[in-house]
Amino acid sequence: MCMMRWRRMLLAVALLTASTRGQDSIQCRNSLVEMLRDPNWMHVNNSQTRWCRLRLENTMATCCRIANFADGKGEDCSGCTALCLHQNMITLCNQHFGQACVVRRKPFFKTGAPDVEVHETFCVPQECNNGPDRDALISRYGASFATDRFGWHLDYNEAVLECPSGVIGPIIVTVVVIACILLCIPISIFLFKAPKERGRTLISQEQMQAESMREDDDLRGAGAGGDTLGSSGMQATR
């Protein structure tokens, strides 16, 4: 009887976990909708979509023996990866919405060119930039906003979202600062240290003072000797 209860409890926990897995938060959903309806995002996204379409079509034409971009079909495709990292979208996203990430997807996976892949800039809203929401974000975007996309931009079923870690940036900055400090040490020594001159002996301040005192004593001695000689000469003349 006790074993049956434990089994029921474990089954309930498993069902609860399965039902909540992949669910995004309400805050994430709302922020995603606001971003997708923002005029600035829509303008930059339109530019990115047209630019990426050209890159993807050109890539497909060179990597497939037979390429039919309009129908999403290709034969003997190899190494077909189009890089569509849009700098304007990266800047807009990082400054106003959240974090610019990269989504890897196969736009023609179902239509007949499964080896063709595209890497696109994808803006993750700040409210979605956490583990559970990020895991469910692409599924939410692919299913809930499919009516806003068409053609090569429609399929997000095989999409994978990749976001850079926030720890890498500070580490890189720290390494660069340390390297600059270490590089400045020998440069400072070279610039501020007086170069040695050949044939010249450097003396200390005490040695200079002692030398000056000896010169003064010599001058006084010479002056005293001259006065005595002059006096004796004058007396001899008389």
Describe this structure in words.
This protein has 238 residues and is α+β, with helices and mostly antiparallel strands. It is elongated, with a radius of gyration of 41 Å. The chain has helices spanning 2-20, 26-36, 39-63, 87-97, 131-144, 168-192, 205-237, and strands at 64-68, 73-77, 81-84, 98-105, 117-125, 160-162. Helix 3 (39-63) runs antiparallel to helix 4. The protein has a domain at 22-169. The longest helix is centred in the last third of the chain and has 33 residues, at 205-237. Strands 3-5-4-6 form a four-stranded mixed sheet. It has seven helices and six strands, in the order H-H-H-E-E-E-H-E-E-H-E-H-H. Keywords: Membrane, Signal, Transmembrane, Transmembrane helix. The chain crosses the membrane at residues 167-192. Residues 1-22 form the signal peptide. Residues 229-238 have a biased composition (Low complexity). Residues 207-238 are annotated as: Disordered.
